[in-house]
Amino acid sequence: MKKIGLYIFDHDCRVLDNPALTQFSQQVDALICVYVLPAPSTFDRQFSQTHASDAQQGYIHQTLSELDENLRLLGQKLLLVQAPIQTVIAHYLKVEHITHVGRSIHSGYYEQQQWQHVQRLYPQLHYFAANSSHLFDLEQLPFTLDELPTSFTPCRKHFEQLDVPAPLATLTHLPAPPKHLANVDFKEIFPPFNGYYSGGEISARDHLNLYFASEAPKSYKETRNELMGDDFSTKFSGFLAHGAISPRQIMASLREYEALNGANESTYWVYFELLWREYFYWYARQHQSRLFCFSGVRNKSLTTSFYPSRFKQWCEGATPYPLVNALMHELNETGWMSNRGRQIVASCLVNELQLDWRYGAAYFQQRLIDYDVASNWGNWQYIAGVGPDPRGGRHFHISKQTALYDPHNIFISHWHGDANCQAITQTDMVDWPISEQS
Ligand SMILES: Cc1cc2nc3c(=O)[nH]c(=O)nc-3n(C[C@H](O)[C@H](O)[C@H](O)COP(=O)(O)OP(=O)(O)OC[C@H]3O[C@@H](n4cnc5c(N)ncnc54)[C@H](O)[C@@H]3O)c2cc1C
Fold first, then answer.
1. Is 251 in the pocket of ligand 1 (CB under 6 A)?
2. Ligand 1: which atom is nearest the Cα of residue 370?
3. How many domains would you assign to the chain?
4. Residue 392 maps to which CATH number?
5. In terms of DSSP bridges, do strands 100-104 and 30-36 run parallel, antiparallel, or are they unpaired?
6. What is an example of a Pfam family matching this protein (predicted)?
7. Does any ligand 1 atom lie closer than 6 A to the CB of residue 375?
């Protein structure tokens, strides 16, 4: 009997160094490649009224177009489907008689639940999933998931003892699709690229080569907290989030760079930051749905709440704080924000505006071109003090951060941070009695 495989791309939108795709394609005689557009869940709808931003969708559009281009070089093509995964599987089971279904392992709890659900629904199919997005495989870890250290530093020390597997050899062949399969035109579904950050496997390879051909890695540790500019940080996050590049490919280029130019603290720090990403991946795998809980993984009581007008001010960049406003304007326009910027606006939402951190995380989920379930919700928990921070949360003082990172008002004026500063006027019964100052 002919083995017909359905491969579901998700956060692994590349053909090179994609263990899940490579191994799955070796198990089947014919292959259908699909990308399933995620529908907003009930949880998403609870925390926000808006949908994925144009910046985010335009970025995904580019990512998928470049994946399709690379698949075509291997005699394949990418099909885009807008339906729940179980419907997609049911469709191809009926129409193409698929026998196998493959994908890369997802860190998200709901995505894992969905994967288990389809296996229960269609037990007659063969299922396959492998790690395509992280540095280490589960079998390499010196601890079980339950024993994952509760904070980053001890975990990093374990990670540093491990060898990062080399990227796979170039993929030269994929089984062909079973027969002519109609596809939708990507342009009919997605808004155009906004011109700020390019997505996709081809762009990722170009960017990686440019970054490691530059002097930037030598001073990364000193520049990485800046707010503005082309190469103060690596700008790998969008590519990594959608899997247009693998962290192992980045590590291979980093090691080559170090061999040619010498290693220093800054080149090590690029690895160090990739280990943060790694940590949050395993953290999400361990804590599952607790990643989204108000009290976090620490089960901590918080006093923050939801104030619609304050949240609106934060989203629109109309708070009393010019730096926060400028950062939010940058996010809304481009879909990206520096790491220091994310820390400042997240801290403002939690500490100054006293808002439930999950609204901020959900807003980031819809805006970021590099949205990644583990890194986003894990970092938000960290700032809100309900996650892996041994100090129990962070408060970034906005005036101090402004003096440190935008002393000449360049960032604020570029993103019009002082154009619409509004006082926080809303009070509610918990603020009573209202003092002179409020
Ligand atoms: C509240 C908040 C939300 C965030 N949400 C996301 C998200 O959805 N997706 C995402 O990829 N990153 C997220 N980050 C982490 C970090 O801000 C971005 O990865 C980084 O700013 C991307 O820019 P870069 O690629 O130039 O990073 P660089 O500074 O050059 O770092 C190199 C790579 O290391 C990884 N990395 C660096 N810092 C972190 C970190 N704190 N946590 C996890 N990985 C890290 C990223 O993959 C990044 O591309 C968030 C941070 C905060 C504080």
1. no
2. 9
3. 3
4. 1.10.579.10
5. unpaired
6. DNA_photolyase
7. yes
Which atom of ligand 1 is closest in space to residue 360's alpha carbon? 1
| Residue 173 covered by a domain | no
Q: pLDDT band for 438, please (50, 70, 90 cuts).
A: very low
**Ligand 1 pocket member 52 (CB < 6 A):** no
Instruction: Read off the amino acid at residue 354.
Output: Q
Inform me whether the pLDDT recorded for 362 exceeds 70. Answer: yes
Among protein residues, the one whose CA lies closest to atom 31 of ligand 1: 273
Q: Are residues 242 and 319 in the same domain?
A: no
8 A C-beta contact, residue 126 and residue 99:
yes
* 363 Cβ inside 6 Å of ligand 1: no
* Side chain identity, residue 285: R
> Do strands 100-104 and 4-9 pair parallel, antiparallel, or not at all (unpaired)?
parallel
331 is in an annotated binding site: no
| 146-to-287, 288, 386, 398 alpha-carbon distances in Å | 9, 11, 18, 37
Cα–Cα distance, 419 to 422 (Å, whole number): 10
Using 50, 70 and 90 to split pLDDT, how confident is the model at 433? low
Q: Helix or strand or coil: residue 7?
A: strand
ipTM of the complex: 0.99
